[in-house]
Amino acid sequence: MPQHGGKKVLKVNKGQAQAKFLEALALAQSGSDELPNEWIVRTRQVGHASNATNTPLLGTALLAKATNKDINALALQTAVHRGYSARGVAKGVLVPMCVEHQIDLRTTGAEPLNNQPFFSKAQVIKDLIPESKPTARSELEFLIQCLEAADYLEGESALYALAAFLRVRIEDGNKATVLTLAGSILTLPILSGLTRDFINKNREGGRRGQALVAACLDLVHPGMVRADAINDPSRKIPGDVAIEITEEPNGADLLIPFPEKHESTKESKNTTVVLSAEAKQRKWSRKAKFCNSLNV
Questions:
Q1: Which parts of the chain fold into alpha helices (H)?
Q2: Which of 23, 150, 186, 196 has its CA 20 to 30 A from that of 142?
Q3: Residue 116 class from Cβ within 10 Å (0-12 exposed, 13-18 middle, 19+ buried)?
Q4: Residues whose CB is less than 8 angstroms from the CB of residue 275 and which lie 6 or more positions away in sequence, other chains included
Q5: DSSP state of 152
Q6: pLDDT digits over 233-246, tens only?
Q7: Tens digits of per-residue pLDDT, 281-293?
């Protein structure tokens, strides 16, 4: 079992997770009354939260626990004790399996755990949402209670909890739609226009601009991009999107995925920023017409 700074780092095998998903799905569709009612109630309440991401996060934790009983159900990254890559389980197993079997997770993206307030965080804690947002904070605290209960699950109890989660999502959710796209090539002007429309229709306070910059950098350095709080660059690191390298003990530099080497938002002493960008979206005037622009 790998160790990061004295912490146990765990993995969730993709093939085993897929098998557990199918086993739980069969239970969910069986019509059996043996599924635990507490997990039906918990899943349904989480499914009513204003933040839709709470639902796939709970499903990810239950799937991970059903596959590997040792993982920390509140972990998002390997930076914490008994941590694992929740993002990898969500993106690699839960989302595609739910799409294939037309199960609604309330989110439509391929990587739901990249959404706020969980993006780039090491673990789910109540301080991810301030007390000034009482509704969202209360929903997060209930989710944490569910994850804490999930952390005690193992074996059959974890499998049946996952089955209860899937049954509720089948009963309460909209059917997922599988799209078959015809093969084609986007020309640069068309791609530029689609990108401009995406960031201009709703700037979301600059979040779309930052997400676009991070996505572009991730195409070249997949999994190695760090995105800080929107419009809030660190005092130590320029920009709010960055790529880092880590110095290995032998003196070599190695590009590494940011989430696997950092704990929460603390900078690591042996990391160096090699590329950074500050994403700003603002309105500008030209001949009395207002447009949105993205400056990097």
A1: 14-28, 37-46, 54-67, 86-89, 95-100, 134-150, 155-172, 188-201, 207-220
A2: 23
A3: middle
A4: 217, 242, 243
A5: T
A6: 566 666 778 887 76
A7: 765 544 434 344 4
Helix pair 14-28, 54-67: axis angle to 10 deg = 110
CA distance 96 to 100: 6
Contacts of 41 (CB under 8 A, 6+ apart): none
* Dist CA 172 CA 192 (whole Å): 38
* pLDDT given at position 257: 44
**Distance (Å, whole) CA 249 – CA 96:** 38
Q: Quick count: other Cβ atoms within 10 Å of Cβ 132?
A: 7
- d(CA 259, CA 223) in angstroms, rounded, equals 8
pLDDT at 17: 95
- Closest listed residue to residue 84, CA positions, set 16, 168, 138: 16
For residue 84, give both structure tokens: 């694992």
Residues 6+ apart with CB under 8 A from 8: 1, 70, 81, 82, 83
The torsion of the CA quartet 10, 15, 20, 22, rounded to 10 degrees, works out to 150
Question: Hey, CA dihedral for 41, 46, 48, 52, is it positive or negative?
Answer: negative
Rounded Cα distance, 221 and 215, in Å? 10
Q: Which residues of 154-172 are buried (b: 16+ CB within 10 A; e: fewer)?
A: eeebbbbbbbbbbbbbbee
pTM of the prediction? 0.61
